């Protein structure tokens, strides 16, 4: 019990929980993890308990990457396994320290990439479309027309605006050769249904451009964090949209 008490080390304000069978192996594990840049909230001797898992679940609330336990030469107690499943805690067990560090850091990389991808996918991406000649099929409720996607990717649910900033509505439906699709990329000619106040031939007409109305915070995220994930035509759509908004608002700083 004295050894267990002595082994409780608060090394960081936030991080993961690590466990080992002896004080010596715990220190060795902590040192290797620190070399890999891993933050450690708590280090203890002993098997993984229910209390450990509940504690790590609280770490996970502040950062999903802290929802992990790294254990050297220890086991998970039966009562702890239920909590691991309940809170979806990631547990790494091994009796080789370098393998534990390797497995954990690899998991972190994959999780970071997954979270970035999910965050990126939630953002509204820019797109510019042109209304095709002789392709206005319905003027309103909903407005239906054929468009060519010039830059970016047009998706169902995206809001559309005119070049002067007038909000036209949102894309209710996209059809490619009669088939419903969720999106249309640059170079595609598709028909779209626009739900909103737009009246074709009055608010916009054949040959006019329509822009996806990207929220300002999404523009900043795309420009500062995700430019490397955008295709060249998506980058062009973003830059053109930023230039357009600068002209319209005159004094809004878009972070360029």
From TrEMBL:
Query: In the UniProt record, does the keyword Ion transport occur?
Result: no
| Any Pfam family | IF-2
- Residues in domain Translation initiation factor IF-? 8-104
An example of a Gene Ontology cellular component annotation for this protein is: cytoplasm
Matching InterPro entries: EFTU-type, TIF_IF2, TIF_IF2_dom3, TIF_IF2_dom3_sf, Transl_B-barrel_sf
Domain of life per record: Archaea
Protein name as catalogued: Translation initiation factor IF-2
Species name for this entry? Methanocaldococcus lauensis
